[in-house]
Design goal:
Rossmann fold; Quinone Oxidoreductase, Chain A, domain 1; seven-stranded mixed beta sheet; six-stranded parallel beta sheet; alpha/beta
């Protein structure tokens, strides 16, 4: 089978398309014929060797796939050969065939494309864990979603709106802001405008927001504290450096600032997360937005593109 192989950590160019033996599923695994694989920023961090978790070399990148079950082990009962599925936390998704444990595989409704299935794993699980597990977001509250036009941002907007929240998104371009509005944001602000935090207070009649999903804490965190409502929560899921804040801003509001990484999710949390995702896919409240589709052989281009500013949904590789 064809697969993308990383034999040394480094720039995107270390990835090569090679022929590899097809994997065989164990008794509790499913073998998936991959039709599409998502590209996430974390994939680039791992490939570069700068991430805290490094896979043994050589390895096949890609964790989020959409495809069809090719075969299952004798202990698998939840899916069968021929089922349309999406899978998350896969080892080696950038290949024509990939194996994963049964708990990682979920049904993909006929109305959802394989490309959309490949856009679910990391972004949608991150958004759910940030909003609901860490942030405790509830119906009737107001959510501020930074970077609302990216993969995680789109997912967070869709989740928050479906939960009955008032949603304010930010994006750096007008097409990005329109995408956020199309996905359900009640308002979309230009995060390149230094005055957009003042607009947030105006939009909430001076009350502030209950939950902030923060993608770039080193830029926004101190200002996030200015726009929090009483007992507001900031969930940091992205940062590219240090930041100075005034802790006194948290005191009068009984505010909370918390960090999050998807790698800390438990099996029980994943069960909750993907039960919610599957329901949303089935009832139509969740639909991943695809920004760009590239063939598997263009993985180097995809890894460069996913780190560029002005995200407009997900980048996926198609097979």
């Amino acid at each position: 089978m064809k697969a993308i192989v990383v034999r040394e950590f480094g720039a995107p160019e270390v990835m090569q398309l090679e022929e590899m033996p097809a994997p065989n599923p164990s008794a509790a695994q499913a073998l998936i014929r991959v039709h599409a694989v998502g590209v996430n920023p974390v994939d680039t961090y791992v490939r570069s060797g700068t991430y805290a978790r490094k896979p043994p070399l050589p390895y096949v990148p890609g964790t989020d796939v959409g495809g069809v079950v090719e075969a299952v082990g004798p202990n698998v009962s939840g899916v069968k050969a021929g089922d349309r599925v999406y899978a998350h936390a896969v080892n080696g998704g950038c290949a024509e065939l990939a194996v994963c444990d049964e708990w990682q595989v979920h049904p993909l409704p006929a109305e959802v494309t394989f490309q959309q299935g490949a856009a679910i794993g990391v972004p949608y699980a991150t958004a759910w864990r940030a909003l609901f597990i860490r942030g405790g977001a509830r119906a009737g509250e107001t959510a501020l979603i930074h970077g609302a036009s990216g993969g995680v941002g789109v997912a967070a907007v869709q989740f928050a709106r479906a939960r009955g929240m008032h949603v304010i998104g930010t994006a750096g371009t007008e097409p990005g802001r329109q995408l956020a509005r199309d996905q359900g944001a009640h308002a979309a602000l230009d995060h390149r405008d230094a005055g957009h935090f003042d607009q947030i207070m105006a939009l909430t009649s001076g009350r502030g927001v209950d939950v902030v999903v923060e993608m770039l804490a080193n830029v926004n965190l101190d200002r996030d504290l200015d726009v929090l409502a009483f007992k507001g929560r900031i969930v940091v899921i992205g940062s590219r450096g240090r930041v100075e804040i005034d802790p006194r801003k948290t005191m009068g509001r009984d505010a909370a600032v918390m960090g999050m990484t998807l790698f800390n999710a438990t099996r029980e949390e994943f069960h909750e997360i993907h039960s919610g995702i599957v329901a949303g896919l089935e009832n139509g409240t969740l639909r991943p937005a695809i920004a760009r589709e590239l063939p598997l052989a263009d993985v180097v281009t995809a890894h460069h593109a996913v780190m560029e500013s002005g995200a407009m949904g997900k980048i996926v590789l198609v097979l």
